[in-house]
């Protein structure tokens, strides 16, 4: 089964709730996520596993709220790896998170 970049049901609910303000919400999510990804990369480089876990948890929540299911799942995986100090697998997940965010960003901007 292919990964779902954006969950249609969540997006439809957001459109109903936010109306004309959806574009502003998307802009806020994208800007905030770009900042979190930069901090996440720094935390990984500095081996700050607690900070890495916190950032992954935060990005997981906001991504889930925006319907970015695959991104939220990857963040959950990173959160678990950081919690368990599984540093050998973290680099690959951080890279996958960055790639998935690029896809999600483009899809959201196209709404």
UniProtKB/TrEMBL annotation:
Single GO molecular function: histidine phosphotransfer kinase activity
Modified-residue entries (Phosphohistidine), positions: 57
Signal peptide start-end: none
Alphabetical keyword list: Phosphoprotein, Two-component regulatory system
GO cellular component entries: cytoplasm
Pfam families for the chain: Hpt
Domain HPt span(s) in chain numbering: 18-111
Highest taxon in the source lineage: Bacteria
InterPro entries per UniProt: AHP1-5/YPD1, HPT_dom_sf, Sig_transdc_His_kin_Hpt_dom
One record GO biological process: phosphorelay signal transduction system
Protein name: HPt (Histidine-containing phosphotransfer) domain-containing protein
């Amino acid at each position: 089964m292919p990964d779902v970049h954006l969950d249609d049901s969540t997006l439809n609910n957001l459109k109903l709730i936010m109306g004309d303000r959806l574009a502003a919400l998307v802009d806020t999510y994208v800007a905030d996520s770009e900042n979190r990804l930069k901090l996440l990369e720094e935390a990984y480089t500095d081996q700050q596993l607690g900070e890495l876990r916190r950032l992954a948890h935060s990005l997981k929540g906001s991504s889930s709220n925006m319907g970015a299911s695959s991104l939220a799942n990857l963040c959950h995986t990173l959160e678990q790896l950081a919690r368990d100090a599984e540093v050998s697998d973290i680099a690959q997940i951080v890279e996958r998170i960055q790639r998935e965010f690029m896809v999600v960003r483009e899809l959201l901007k196209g709404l």
